[in-house]
Write a structure and sequence with these properties.
globular; 21 strands; 612 residues; Serine Threonine Protein Phosphatase 5, Tetratricopeptide repeat; alpha+beta; 19% strand; seven-stranded mixed beta sheet; 18 helices; Neutral Protease, domain 2; Immunoglobulin-like
Amino acid sequence: MKFHHLAILFVSLLLAACQQQKPAASAPSAAPDPHSFSRPDLARAQHLDLNLLIDFDTKTLSGYARWTIENPAGASEIIFDTDNLDIQKITMGKDEKPAKFSLGARDSIFGSALRIQLEPCADVLTIYYATRPDAAALGWMEPSMTAGKKLPFLFTQGQAILTRSWIPCQDTPGNRITYNAEIQTPVGMMAVMSAENPQQKSPDGKYQFRMEQPVATYLIALAAGDIAFKSVGPRTGVYAEPPMLEKSAWEFAEMEKMVEAAEALYGSYVWGRYDLIVLPTGFPFGGMENPRLTFATPTVVTGDRSLVSLVAHELAHSWSGNLVTNSNWNDFWLNEGFTVYFERRIMEAVYGKDYTEMLAQLEYWELEEEVMLLGEDSPDTHLKLDLTGRNPDDGVGDIAYQKGGFFLTMLERQTDRAKWDAFLKSWFDEHKFTSQSTESFLSYLKTNYLEKYNLKVNTDEWVYAPGIPANCPRPNSVKLAAAEKAAADIARQLPDTKNWTPHEWVHFVRNLPAATDVATLKKLDAQFGLSSSANAEIRCAWYASAIPKGYAAEIMPGMESFLTEVGRRRFLMPVYTELKKAGLSDDARRIFQKAAPGYHAVSRNSVEALLK
């Protein structure tokens, strides 16, 4: 018994000494993340040193993740998220003493919990591992799937919970880390990350990276391939494959102007550079806001700068999402709703109110469609979601984006922009490099805006109730109204489309009357080349509108080419959906079988589920 008491005293003193060696960083939320096995509130991964070799032949990454950890409470284990990783060995400390660990059974959504036993004062763990060819976060593009057709390409996509498939980590937005990385590519390639980046290829294919600001793990990103760089401003530039570089640099030439507009609204851009990389067509999203380096689809390179609102959106994430992050994926609207609002403000500053009103009008209609699809009483139309036990990608939709954005627009209009902008700027300033919940924002809103200006607002209805509240702002675009009238008159005359934007074209096509006959569709196609448009937004809308009107056979070759060349889920799902609804599932499956190898797992899984 005496020995037992002395042992407890010794361990307690040892733990106290460990805690004195290094001050604890700000603690993550104590509430467990329903989409992560990890418990960073008990034992936390703080800094990552990543060392990986890219092998395009085996489609694997291999090496190690060395984690600096903190354990102020003296937890007996630390838990990491993994998914289909081959864990080879784990060591503890700088002397790399073998550590005891166990890997739990794999859940089809969340992967496996990696539990590592800790010793007192343990502050470094090294996990040696390799990914598998089917890792969900990794997009392996064969040379034929790239712009240059010579070298393969790799990109990652970690949001929401896919980083665990290429890095063993505490994969929750509630914990933030800093990281360094060393990446080995085949000679002749360049690697870039969401960090400080090279601007020229390394002769030996070895690259070092540093991210000094703490970020959530879903924002760790890597791309490698035949990549070149071109500056478009003092702190902005574009990465792309050489055949895409000049046209991409022209398309995004106004990035510096957008950064300046954003800073004028909500404070200094704190990440150093803001660069963008144009990825191969297999990238599943429009863009991803990886810090310092936005990942973008090539479908926004249209030659007319008509889709650069994507840049405004991803740039806005540098404040809402990257700087202040949702604490878990039930609070996803804090990332995307804020960003949609911020995007509109940037676009208004750069392109004017008429253009922004048109974007807002389209987004409002998208919100109405989403509510109709989900059901007006569906809990999935709440801003605050409950995605427990579900894939957090289920929350990626127009509710978080558009309902969230209109919520902030409604709040802005309760006073004036100067007061609202001051409030929003203080929110970012006072919560930078933290992860926040819906409840923490509402509390801050109540104290610093609603009570300050004596406002009575139905915030609970917006956040915790379904549907679209009655006080939702209703945009009214004159330009879109004219396009809608032109669609209604299509049987009588073709429209005068001089100076139309792609947004007007998309709205026109979507509003073609259901009774529009094939002869009229052929005439439209011949006059305006809709089936071969260089703008993917127009082409997608045209196919999705023409299929149910009986025009599928005539446009099938162009559709097949489109679905094979474009990997963005936003464009794939509407067309595949209409093919299925029209009884053309056999054609849809045939095209999908051909195109699937070029799709990222996010897109591939969505289409596969639709066509089952």
